[in-house]
Amino acid sequence: MTGVKYVPLACYHEYPEEEMRQRAASFRSDMQRRRSVRNFSSRAVRREVIEECLLTAGSAPSGANMQPWSFVVVSDAAVKRQIRESAEKEEYKFYHGGGGEEQLDAVSVLGTDYQKPFLEAAPYLIVIFAQNHGVLEDGRKVKHYYVRESVGIATGMLVAAIHNVGLAALPYTPSRTGFLKRILGRPENERLFLVLVVGYPAEGATVPDIQKKTLEEITTFV
Ligand SMILES: Cc1cc2nc3c(=O)[nH]c(=O)nc-3n(C[C@H](O)[C@H](O)[C@H](O)COP(=O)(O)O)c2cc1C
Fold it and tell me: CATH code at 143?
């Protein structure tokens, strides 16, 4: 611990027990309204809202505080079109034999196909990259720890932040990922984590009728 400067935990806030319970239930209930939406409106969203949500994601914990994530926010129509076209080429192969029966079976409950119009319709594609290692100004590499876990937590916080402002999001994981790195000109140390499609739901948007597991199914208290 020598050489590490510690400061008081001035930002900590404790709630009375009853308020704590209410806040837990209220947050749970609000988060349970979140759904992955696949029909997006092209209605504009202010960039500062997205920036605030990204700062929430950036406040996530990470292995050794390496913050091994990069968020590329795509709103340019031509770049979105390029991403959609490349994605649909890959998805066409996936849905026509390349995906393997097991994975195709798993996604069949969602009724998705190779067409990804949301990649063009939504105002923002937040393309999230994980940094396998850091790079110092002089080119030396810095080891990153628990990259997948860290980027997963930051992405979860981003999903929650987006839901909190009344926008919809879809985590999209293309079957092949190289095209996104190429189109967006990303450096060698990054790999695609996922694409978060963000915007307002289209009018009349529908979602699959699926259920979440119960507390008993997902939890063991020891
Ligand atoms: C890591 C991850 C990858 C996903 N990839 C896709 C995807 O490529 N295409 C898609 O339509 N949905 C994708 N989803 C959304 C899931 O299908 C969705 O979260 C799940 O069906 C539960 O629905 P809900 O988000 O509405 O609760 C992905 C979700 C996660 C967490």
Answer: 3.40.109.10
147 within a domain of the structure (yes/no): yes
Residue 200 and residue 35: Cα distance in Å, rounded? Answer: 12
pLDDT in tens, 194-207: 999 999 999 999 99
Answer whether residue 119 is part of any domain: yes
How does pLDDT run across 91-108, given as a tens digit for each residue?
A: 999 888 777 777 777 777
Domain count, the chain: 1
Task: List CB contacts of 80: < 8 A, sequence separation 6 or more.
Answer: 74, 119, 120, 125
Question: What number does the ligand 1 atom closest to the CA of 174 have?
Answer: 8
Report the residue among 128, 172, 195, 197 best suited for mutation to probe ligand 1: largest number of ligand atoms under 8 A from its CB: 172
* Atom 10 in ligand 1: residue holding the nearest Cα: 172
Structure tokens at 183: 């189109």
Residue 151 sits at φ, ψ, to 5 deg, of -70, -35
